[in-house]
Design a protein that fits this description.
Layout (H helix, E strand, L loop, with lengths): L3 E3 L15 H12 L3 E4 L8 H16 L5 H10 L5 H16 L3 H13 L7 H4 L6 H17 L4 H28 L6 H20 L9 H30 L2
Parallel strand pairs: 1-2
Helix pairs in contact: 1-2, 2-3, 3-4, 4-7, 7-8, 8-9, 9-10
């Protein structure tokens, strides 16, 4: 049969949110690897290991061992978390099921929400903020806390879970900024201040943890965010500064 060179853009999605699709991409890679694949190139990997690690691990291992099932490869990944492997599997499975449930109808609903809020951008930074609601994130946080409890006393696993925790914090803060951006009202200084404060908290967090796993690919993430809300942020900062100056006696 014919030979195949596989060059997808699959990894250019999810921003820095826990966008997990490891089983599905594993199945796709397994199929092409067993049906004439001679080479592959993966574009646009944005390096969010702390929240999207299973996706990248799946691709690398499936290309090496296409005879294995996606579940076998995921079991390898989770085994790195020792006494917390079952809890970490539950944590990532939660995100996987959430993402796989966002079918085309749901996406259209989100796009309608974007339109109703007067937004013009359907980038994952904005679009997925409708899916990763505070309640959804709270459940994910609870699952990660269960993993941390299971790992108590194992220093190596605790250190690995800290990476996952930092990644989730980065996602949580990004979502707060995205929701605050969506909620800006030009006649409401409080909503404008909420947006500025959320972005400040996000940037401070990233600066504090610069060079750690959640920062790989950060230049791309920051570029995308600046392209979406950078101009508004600059305008709001200037407006608030003017208002503060005019309120001084």
């Amino acid at each position: 049969g014919p030979s195949m060179f596989f060059r997808p853009n699959t990894l250019h999605r999810g921003h820095n949110y826990p966008d997990i699709f490891a089983r599905r991409i594993g199945g796709a890679v397994q199929f092409v690897a067993n049906n004439g694949l001679v080479g592959t190139e993966w574009d646009a990997w944005i390096g969010q290991w702390a929240v999207q690690g299973p996706n990248a691990y799946m691709i690398g291992r499936m290309l090496q061992h296409p005879e294995k099932s996606p579940d076998e490869i995921l079991a390898e990944f989770y085994s790195a978390f020792g006494p917390a492997k079952k809890q970490v599997a539950a944590y990532f499975d939660y995100w996987d099921k959430l993402i796989s449930g966002l079918d085309s109808k749901t996406e259209q609903d989100f796009l309608e929400d974007v339109k109703n809020e007067g937004l013009q951008n359907n980038h994952p930074l904005i679009l997925l903020s409708f899916a990763f609601t505070p309640g959804v994130m709270a459940k994910g946080r609870a699952l990660l806390e269960e993993a941390k409890t299971a790992a108590a006393g194992d220093a190596e696993v605790e250190a690995r879970l800290r990476i996952l925790d930092l990644g989730l914090q980065n996602s949580e803060l990004t979502l707060e900024a995205a929701r605050a951006f969506r909620g800006i009202n030009r006649k409401d200084p409080a909503s404008q201040q909420k947006f500025v404060s959320a972005v400040d908290a996000l940037e401070e967090f990233r600066k504090t943890h610069e060079g750690q796993y959640l920062n790989f690919g950060q230049s791309h993430i920051s570029q995308q965010e600046n392209g979406i809300w950078g101009g508004v942020l600059k305008e709001v900062r200037s407006r608030l500064a003017t208002q503060q100056a005019s309120n001084k006696p």
